[in-house]
Amino acid sequence: MPRRDPQLSLSLPAPRRWGGRRVGAGRKRTGKPASKPNLAHVARAPFRKPLPAHVTLRLRTDTPSLRTVKVVHEIERTFARGCVRPGFRLVHYSLQGNHAHLIVEAQDHATLGRGMMAIGSRLARAINRIAKRSGAVLADRYHVRMLPTPKEVRNALRYVLLNARHHVATARTKARAIMPTPVRHDPASSARWFDGWKPGRSQEPGPHERPAVAHPRPVARARTWLLAVGWRRYGLLDPADVPG
Q1: What is the reported pTM?
Q2: Domain housing 165
Q3: Domain tally for the chain?
Q4: At 111, which CATH number?
Q5: Which of 38, 62, 220, 243 is the most exposed place for a label (fewest CB within 10 A)?
Q6: What digits encode the pLDDT tens for the residues 113-172?
Q7: 14: which residues sit within 8 A by CB, 6+ positions away?
Q8: For 188-214, how does the pLDDT look when each residue is reduced to its tens digit (9 = 90+)?
């Protein structure tokens, strides 16, 4: 029997069930998420000063999980080579089964578009190399939410860096009482390179987590005041938190 690649352990998606008399049963259209409609092709709101943004990328249904260990390592390597572009920086990320959350900085609307085109291409090539496939990887255009205030930046950082805990909580009842211990950084995220955690919390490395010095950083350091300093006025992040 062929061996299946291991997946990183914090994400616990519900098992798939096929067939049956229920809404949405049956074969899904190839290449589109089962439950997410396409984003409307409307003009994105312009901005003219450097700002952080929360970006979400969704994958086609015929692609491997982003939390497969080989895929995570390949994405880290390609992000390390492309996390900085003129006027654009990839500062944080979280990889889930069929989508990725990113925190980026962009100088303006046009720079954000070019930067996300480059990041999307790198992500697609990394997945196709590991899966030995070709063709499109992203299911839709990216979703973006600009973060113009310190509180919005902190909320986005909390959601992205603790996103695996959010998915575990969604999949379990009484999640806060049975979350995995000790608290560990999600190895499929940039949490290892984040310096805004509350001190005194245990973050032991998981079984698939590699030391941060094993390869170049896959993320850039923040340059905007909002993402580097401003959000901290609302308090450092607790690695044991579960975002809603």
Answers
A1: 0.77
A2: 51-234
A3: 1
A4: 3.30.70
A5: 38
A6: 999 999 999 999 999 999 999 999 999 999 999 999 999 999 999 999 999 887 776 665
A7: 171
A8: 999 999 999 998 765 555 444 454 445
